[in-house]
Specification:
The chain is of the alpha+beta class and 84 residues long. The radius of gyration is 24 Å and the shape is elongated. The protein has a domain of 56 residues: Pemi-like Protein 1, Chain: D, CATH 2.10.260. Strand 1 and strand 2 form a beta hairpin. Strands 1-2 form a two-stranded antiparallel ribbon. Strands 3-4 form a two-stranded antiparallel ribbon. It has 2 helices and 4 strands; from the N terminus they run ββαββα.
């Protein structure tokens, strides 16, 4: 499947609109990351194989053992103008 589209100004950058059908065939949905590769004079767009996942602090804390305890550490005398 091919399509013709235009490069348009998008803030301080330029954007490229891609049809919903083309993205569907690629297996990508709105909001997902893609990898854009430059191969000579051609661009290749493919799904990102290693997307960054968002980490939720609440989920991380829930995974902590119930008996987890934080000890206070003494780092010695202040060396600068720290106010504790």
């Amino acid at each position: 499947m091919n399509m013709i589209t235009k490069i348009t100004k998008w803030g301080n950058s330029q954007g490229l609109r891609i049809s919903k059908e083309l993205l569907s065939n690629l297996g990508v949905r709105e909001g997902e990351e893609v990898e854009v590769l430059l191969d000579g004079k051609a661009l290749t767009i493919r799904p990102n194989k290693n997307p960054k996942t968002k980490v939720d602090l609440t989920d991380l804390v829930a995974e902590m053992p119930a008996d987890y305890h934080v000890d206070e550490s003494d780092w010695g005398e202040n060396k600068g103008k720290e106010i504790w």
